[in-house]
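Reading a protein record of the kind used here takes little practice once its layout is understood. The fold follows as a row of integers, each naming the local backbone shape at the matching residue. With these conventions in mind, the following record can be read line by line:

_____
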Amino acid sequence: MKKTAILAMVVSGLAVGSASAQDYGDACLMFEHAGFRGEVIAMAPDQRVSFRAGQFWNDAVSSVRVARGCTLVIFEHARMQGASAEISRRVPNLGRRWNDRISSAECYCDDYDNY
């Protein structure tokens, strides 16, 4: 019985990490792979993230989805440093400039509208 309960928790936890964007009520989503695939990190309005070297998400983002009324500011280095860009839409492929180069980001919303 305990093994079944533990297995169910592990499976549900894995499903959350790879769920589609529509399952999240968050304002900004960053995906591991192009085309909104792979692991996803969801950010609420007015949330910041900063990844250290060696962490899974450091230099691992390839596509993003941003809700209407929100902007995702991406940075080349941790602690919101280095080159930056603002994204206020869905980008299925970050391209040569930003693919696998994001080390920190902040999501802010003027008029947050859930997907």
